[in-house]
Design brief:
The chain is 38% helix and 13% strand. It is of the alpha/beta class. The radius of gyration is 22 Å and the shape is globular.
């Protein structure tokens, strides 16, 4: 049977980046000792008042249909939060509440671009951006980053053409942690005015930036800017799917129509919990900023002094990039060989639950690691070209393990190449009960192994 062209647009690079994640989840569900750190999902609990509000609303029967754009009280609360953060005066009429910022970007894409149009964005980028933008039939055009991993606004003008409809960026960036500054934003603003473009600002991580805010254009260009936000990162509410878009009233009306077709309203008890979450935003955001700052410092200290690895500390957010270009390998090659350097992973066998923590697939021969070595032989020796880097792999694994011995220090490997060289991205705010690696920028998803280490943490002890 035939399918529409849409299935090809949404199954590309972004979908492939999550394959290792799902392999790891499957391994964990089989009882293998896996640590999944492939997503920005902080191992913190949702604030207790938020949970209690949801429970009380459930018991009160708040389980019926609601307006597609969201409950008025919630949209008013989002409008107040947005005004405090951005300086843009908005009301509930400018807000549409959706199932997370991912859904908000999806709806924005459908409303702002279509077949033959183009949306320009900066590298590095969140892996689902391409499919989310291109689901409408538009094309995502990428602007390379500078050597410092900042958006190359000087190269932006050359990427804008007659088909360009919008410029999309995230600040703080996922995965680089870069926060766009006023000079960069002014270049974007001038190009938007000149070419009559929409501006889509993904500010999901804004609460993790210093003082909980980032420079923006919403107050200066209110008729052009669409701001995306959510409670996922700031309040450790990833599974609640509570996000929104804020934009011109006319766009909000169109987005509401799309939401009506797609969702027909979201649960009232979660919307009431979201109101409670917004009421304690200052406290929640301070907690997550402290959490990420401590973990970034621990990992940077652990990786310092390792030959061929250069950490690129973020300005904000949950991720850290590591430049591995001095190894002579791409990010994908580095992670692949790091995986191959672990005996269990190399032979594809599962280790006992209390031993090495790895992302190997299900046992290829149905044996433990020790008996597998007897059946399958020792893991293959590194290729000659890989031997100069072998020590770096080992030191990298030891440094990661050392960082994790400190209470709460959990990190994750991601592969991806950057203009400054080839890099690895480290998640510093993720769940600690399992682990895997994925491509966060360009490269195919690959898994990386961790040695056996103690795991002191509030959610593991």
């Amino acid at each position: 049977m035939k399918f529409s062209a849409l299935v090809d647009r949404v199954r590309g690079e972004g979908a492939a980046a999550w394959r290792t994640h799902y392999q790891a989840v499957a391994a964990h569900e089989r009882g293998e000792d896996v640590i999944i750190l492939s997503v920005g999902d902080p191992d913190l609990e949702t604030p207790a008042p938020v949970i209690e509000r949801a429970i009380s609303q459930l018991r009160a029967g708040d389980t019926h249909y609601l307006p597609a754009a969201g409950r008025a009280r919630l949209r008013e609360a989002i409008a107040r939060s947005h005004a405090r953060r951005s300086g843009q005066a908005v009301s509930a009429e400018n807000v549409v509440y959706l199932a997370g910022a991912q859904n908000a970007l999806f709806v924005s894409s459908l409303c702002l671009a279509g077949p033959g149009d183009e949306v320009v964005t900066f590298e590095p980028l969140y892996p689902t951006y391409p499919a989310t933008i291109e689901v409408s039939g538009a094309r995502l055009v990428r602007v390379p980053a500078t050597a410092a991993c900042r958006p190359d606004v000087a190269a932006l003008a050359a990427r804008i053409g007659p088909r360009t409809r919008a410029i999309l960026w995230a600040s703080p960036n996922n995965p680089s942690g870069v926060v766009l500054n006023e000079q960069e934003l002014e270049v974007i603003a001038e190009l938007a005015r000149r070419h009559d473009l929409w501006l889509i600002a993904d500010e999901v991580y804004a609460g993790l930036a210093p003082e909980g805010r980032v420079p923006g254009l919403a107050a200066r260009l209110p008729d052009r800017v669409v701001t995306l936000g959510s409670l996922s990162k700031s309040h450790a509410m990833t599974g609640w799917r509570a996000g929104w878009l804020v934009g011109p009233r006319e766009l909000a009306l169109h987005a509401e129509h799309v939401a009506m077709c797609m969702l027909f309203g979201l649960p009232g008890f979660i919307q009431e919990a979201a109101i409670s979450a917004l009421d304690l935003a200052g406290e929640a955001e301070a907690r997550i900023r402290s959490y990420c700052t401590a973990r970034q410092a621990r990992f940077a200290a652990g990786i310092a002094g390792i030959d061929c690895l250069r950490p690129l500390p973020p300005e904000a957010g949950m991720f850290m990039l590591i430049d591995v270009s001095a190894t002579g390998l791409s990010g994908a090659e580095f992670v692949q060989r790091l995986l191959a350097s672990q005996p269990r992973a190399a032979c594809g066998c599962a280790s006992p639950p209390t031993r090495a923590r790895s992302i190997a697939p299900a046992p290829a021969c149905g044996s433990s690691a020790s008996s597998c070595r007897k059946r399958c032989g020792p893991p293959p020796a590194p290729e000659p070209s890989a031997r100069p880097q072998a020590a770096a792999y080992s030191r990298a694994a030891r440094a990661a393990a050392a960082a994790r011995r400190t209470r709460g220090a959990r990190q994750a490997f991601f592969a991806g190449s950057l203009p400054s060289g080839v890099s690895l991205s480290i998640a510093v705010g993720s769940a600690c009960d399992s682990f895997c690696a994925r491509s966060c920028v360009f490269s195919p998803a690959l898994a990386a192994s961790w040695p056996s280490v103690p795991l002191p943490n509030t959610c593991c002890s």
